[in-house]
C-alpha cells in the first residue's frame, strides 16, 4: 500500500468519491470552510453524528457499502461510516484511505453479544486515515454523540491534527475498547475478505435472525 498522498485521491468502487450524493454530502458538511484540516474535522463530525451507529444493520449486499449509498442512510455501522468519510474527504481533494483493526469492546449489550455468537472481539473495525497538515492521521467516526451519552462515554473528537480512535476507558474508568490487531491501510473496501472473516468468526447470526430482535442502547430513536 502506497503512503504517497497523491495515490489516495481517485474514486474507488466503494469509495465512490465522484458520485453526486458523496459530493453533496461533503460540500454540505464542510460548508464555507476552506482550510483542509478544519474541513477534515467537519467531515468527521458530520459522519459521526449525522448517521446513527447501529451494528444490527450489517448487510451482505455490496451496494450497501458504497459511499454514495451510505451518504443517505440514517443508520449504519463503523465500516460503511468509514467508507463515507474516506470518500467525502477525497471529494474535497483531501487524500484519504481506509484502515481496519480487530478491537475488543468491553462496552457491549446482551443483544449484541448474541449477534456476535458470544464473541467480544470485533473484527475489521473500520476507520479512516486522512492526509492533513503533511501527515496521515487516523479517525473513527463510528459512535455518534447521542449514543455515547447512553453508554456514559465521551464522543471521539477529531481536530484534524491528532489520531482520534476509541478511548481505552469509559467515563467511570473501566475498560472500554482495546485495539488487538491492526490490518493496515486499504485504498478501497476489501468487501469479500470482511464478509468471509465475519462468517468464520460469528456465523450467520451476524447477518440477521433471532439475535437481531428486540432493542437495546444501540436502538436508534424513531426519527433516525
Give a short overview.
The protein has 224 residues and is of the alpha+beta class.
- Beta-strand segment tally: 6
- Which residues sit in consecutive blocks of at least 5 with pLDDT less than 50? none
- Estimate percent helicity: 25-40%
Average per-residue pLDDT, rounded, comes to 91
Count the helices. How many? 7
Sheet with most strands: 4 strands, antiparallel
Radius of gyration over all CA atoms, rounded: 16 Å
β-strand percent reads 15-25%
Between the first and last Cα atoms, what is the distance in angstroms?
37 Å
The succession of helices and strands, N to C, reads HHEHEHEHEEHEH
The computed structural class is alpha+beta
What gross morphology would you assign? Answer: globular
What distinguishing features does this structure have?
224 residues, alpha+beta, four-stranded antiparallel β-sheet, two-stranded parallel ribbon, 7 helices, 6 strands
Task: Characterise the protein shown here.
- The protein is of the alpha+beta class.
- The protein is built from 7 helices and 6 strands; from the N terminus they run ααβαβαβαββαβα.
- Strands 5-4-3-6 form a 4-stranded antiparallel sheet. A two-stranded parallel sheet has the order 1-2.
- The termini are far apart.
- The mean pLDDT is 91.
Amino acid at each position: 500500500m502506497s503512503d504517497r498522498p497523491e495515490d489516495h485521491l481517485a474514486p474507488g468502487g466503494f469509495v465512490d468519491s465522484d458520485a453526486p450524493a458523496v459530493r453533496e454530502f461533503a460540500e454540505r458538511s464542510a460548508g464555507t470552510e476552506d482550510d483542509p484540516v478544519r474541513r477534515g474535522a467537519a467531515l468527521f463530525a458530520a459522519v459521526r453524528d449525522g448517521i446513527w451507529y447501529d451494528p444490527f444493520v450489517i448487510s451482505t449486499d455490496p451496494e450497501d457499502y458504497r459511499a454514495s449509498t451510505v451518504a443517505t442512510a440514517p443508520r449504519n455501522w463503523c465500516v460503511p461510516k468509514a467508507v463515507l468519510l474516506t470518500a467525502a474527504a477525497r471529494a474535497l481533494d483531501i487524500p484519504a484511505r481506509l484502515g481496519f483493526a480487530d478491537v475488543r469492546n468491553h462496552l457491549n449489550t446482551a443483544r449484541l453479544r448474541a449477534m456476535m455468537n458470544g464473541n467480544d472481539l470485533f473484527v475489521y473495525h473500520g476507520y479512516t486515515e486522512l492526509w492533513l497538515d503533511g501527515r496521515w492521521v487516523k479517525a473513527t467516526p463510528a459512535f455518534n454523540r447521542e449514543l455515547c451519552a447512553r453508554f456514559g462515554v465521551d464522543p471521539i473528537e477529531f481536530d484534524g491534527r491528532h489520531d482520534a480512535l476509541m478511548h481505552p476507558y469509559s467515563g467511570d474508568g473501566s475498560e472500554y475498547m482495546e485495539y488487538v490487531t491492526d490490518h493496515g491501510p486499504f485504498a478501497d473496501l476489501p468487501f469479500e475478505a470482511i464478509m468471509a472473516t465475519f462468517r468464520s468468526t460469528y456465523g450467520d447470526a451476524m447477518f440477521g435472525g433471532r439475535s437481531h430482535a428486540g432493542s437495546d442502547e444501540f436502538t436508534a430513536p424513531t426519527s433516525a
